[in-house]
Write a structure and sequence with these properties.
By secondary structure, the protein is mainly α. It is built from seven helices and two strands; from the N terminus they run αααααααββ. It has one domain: Glycerol uptake facilitator protein. It is globular.
């Protein structure tokens, strides 16, 4: 079962729960993974806080939009990210070597687009570490619920669409805008 990225690790509790919801992650590993992800984020925030001090509130994620709009932005982009992760990391039809590039590019684009609006977290652990170190809990719940909801919905949608698509070895039918093209 291929349930993680190329390195067989991921650092996002929303991804863990999304994979678990589509049965691509073992139930027994969910709590240990999420605990480790949050511990890693806490350690990273503590080290960066020690090195840099309280620059940008220790990297805390705080929305610039009203909470409802921020929730939709975080959920929506987390869903896009989950769709890309599902395609790149779990679909046998996708060459494994592209996963780091498409996932990294998606996170980069998401940070550019949503960063000014919500802080562009898409990752509850990434928000948890700086919140705990800096003591900044503004709308913290949003950064757990929105990414988890977005990931679960998108991963289920991807699995639904994957089941509806022919396998790579199936005979190809050339189609045009009006249907199959007869040769």
């Amino acid at each position: 079962m291929r349930y993680a990225l190329l390195s067989d690790v991921h650092a996002n509790p929303a991804v863990t729960l999304g994979f678990w919801s589509v049965r691509r992650f073992p139930t027994a590993d969910v709590i240990p993974y999420i605990s480790s992800q949050c511990a890693g984020a806490l350690a990273a925030a503590a080290v960066l806080g020690w090195l840099l001090g309280p620059v940008a509130n220790f990297g805390a994620t705080v929305p610039s939009l009203p909470v409802t709009q921020a929730f939709v932005v975080e959920m929506g982009f987390s869903g896009i990210l989950a769709f890309v992760i599902s395609a790149a990391a779990t679909d046998s039809r996708t060459p494994p070597a592209i996963a780091p590039f498409v996932i990294g590019s998606t996170v980069f684009a998401g940070a550019l687009v949503t960063g000014p609006l919500t802080g562009g977290s898409f990752n509850p652990a990434r928000t948890f570490g700086p919140a705990l170190v800096g003591g900044i809990w503004t709308s913290h719940w949003l950064y757990w619920l929105a990414p988890i909801a977005g990931m679960i919905v998108a991963m289920h949608l991807y699995d639904f669409l994957r089941a509806a698509t022919p396998e790579r070895d199936a005979p190809l039918t050339v189609t045009g805008v009006e249907g199959p093209i007869e040769e």
